[in-house]
TrEMBL record:
Domain of life, source organism: Bacteria
NCBIfam families in the record: NagX_SO_3504
Keyword Transmembrane helix (UniProt): yes
UniProt keyword list: Membrane, Transmembrane, Transmembrane helix
Positions of transmembrane segments: 30-51, 71-94, 106-123, 135-157, 164-183, 221-238, 250-269, 281-303, 315-334, 354-374
Keyword Transmembrane: yes
Protein name: DUF5009 domain-containing protein
């Protein structure tokens, strides 16, 4: 009887922890489904400067610097690492058949995310028959796939201490490359928009086209080194959560310490190596990991410790099908659907209320689709 009760408790704790991670992933996705415009709309309605400041945080930085909108992508990558750290174990502990299945899944996931990323970028550029020189091969989904794949290989094949050494090695190696590697006019510490070493790598080695024909692609080749670190740090955080699951107050304290320390270190080093999302600099890694861990601590405290779950469920519903709804933002004309259903209401309103309710209706339609999928247990995983 005692064993059965303990099994139920363990299952419940696991479910809650997964809810907190799914809720944070859904909260992260919420802002790129259309919610990023809500503050600008509120500023139009109220004229309050606080909403204008918040609206500015919902825009990417032009080059050096950081806004909260810059956090969305790296937070998602770190959470994929957290899930890996919670669940993964050395590949040697699996049978030969299981190992083969694991490898097949990892390669399939990587290839599928790269392919879906191309689809998100609207595929073949000029249309089929394809002009392969007009395809943008790199993407947000492709970067997520690569970061997870590298992290999975390291988790499966190396001990934790070795993984730490490799993570530190990637961090300092990338810093060294940014600071000293040079080819002609490129690199050698130049972190400008046109002549960084990343720009040379993308212009020389990246097939197809770059984002908006820019000098360096924001999902370019060399900056993958930075995003891999985000995922690996997520792995270590996941392991910490797993090892300290029975001492929640200690875990919360450690998450807060790690978050504040990493965030502070990133900004302390900013004068030496600027925080930059496009280049995904090591300082950008530190700042985004710091914020990500602090958000994770907040969600862990609210959901796992205080057991406040009702508010988190709508976000968790988004998080359970995050990849498919992300694809939907590019492949479905949600604005057309909103205008078709609610256009009469919207056009009768002032500009501010029209902008705000258009966002509300857009989010509601997407959420209802996800809620229907959740209710019918349709979870599209990659």
């Amino acid at each position: 009887m005692t064993e059965n009760v303990q099994a139920v408790v363990d299952k419940t704790n696991k479910s809650k922890r997964l809810l907190s991670i799914d809720a944070l992933r859904g909260f992260d996705m919420f802002w790129i489904l259309g919610a990023e415009g809500v503050f600008a709309a509120l500023f139009l309605i109220t004229g309050l400067s606080v909403f204008n400041v918040a609206a500015e945080q919902m825009l990417h930085t032009t080059w050096h610097g950081f806004t909260m909108y810059d956090l969305i992508f790296p937070l998602f990558i770190l959470l994929s690492g957290v899930s890996l750290g919670l669940a993964a174990k050395p590949i040697s502990l699996y049978s030969a058949v299981e190992r083969k299945a694991k490898y097949r899944h990892a390669y399939k996931r990587l290839c599928l995310l790269v392919l879906l990323g191309i689809v998100y970028n609207h595929g073949w550029g000029t249309g089929i028959p394809a002009d392969f020189g007009e395809i943008r091969y790199v993407s947000v989904l492709g970067r997520i796939g690569l970061a997870w794949f590298v992290a999975a290989m390291l988790v499966w094949h190396f001990k934790t201490k070795t993984q730490l050494y490799i993570t530190a090695g990637i961090f300092f190696a990338y810093w060294f490359i940014l600071a000293f590697a040079s080819v002609g006019d490129f690199g050698g510490g130049n972190l400008g928009a046109n002549f960084s070493i990343n720009a040379w790598v993308d212009q020389t080695m990246l097939p197809g086209i770059r984002y908006q024909d820019s000098a360096v692609d924001p999902e370019g080749l060399l900056s993958n080194l930075g995003s891999i670190i985000n995922c690996l740090i997520g792995v270590f955080i996941g392991r910490l959560m797993k090892s300290q699951k029975d001492i929640s107050t200690v875990l919360l304290r450690n998450l807060l310490i790690i978050g504040f320390f990493t965030l502070s270190l990133g900004w302390l080093l900013d004068p030496v190596l600027p925080v930059n999302k496009t280049l995904w600099t090591p300082t950008f890694v530190l700042v985004t990991c710091g914020w990500s861990v602090l958000f994770l601590a907040l969600f862990y405290w609210l959901i796992d410790m205080l057991n406040w779950q009702a508010w988190a469920k709508p976000f968790a519903i988004i998080g359970m099908n995050s990849i498919i709804i992300y694809l939907g933002t590019a492949l479905v004309n949600w604005k057309y659907i909103v205008d078709s259903l609610f256009g009469g209401i919207l056009t009768s309103l002032s500009d501010g209320w029209q902008a705000l309710l258009a966002i509300v209706f857009l989010l509601l339609l997407q959420w209802l689709l996800l809620a229907w999928m959740y209710r019918n247990k349709i979870f599209i995983k990659v």
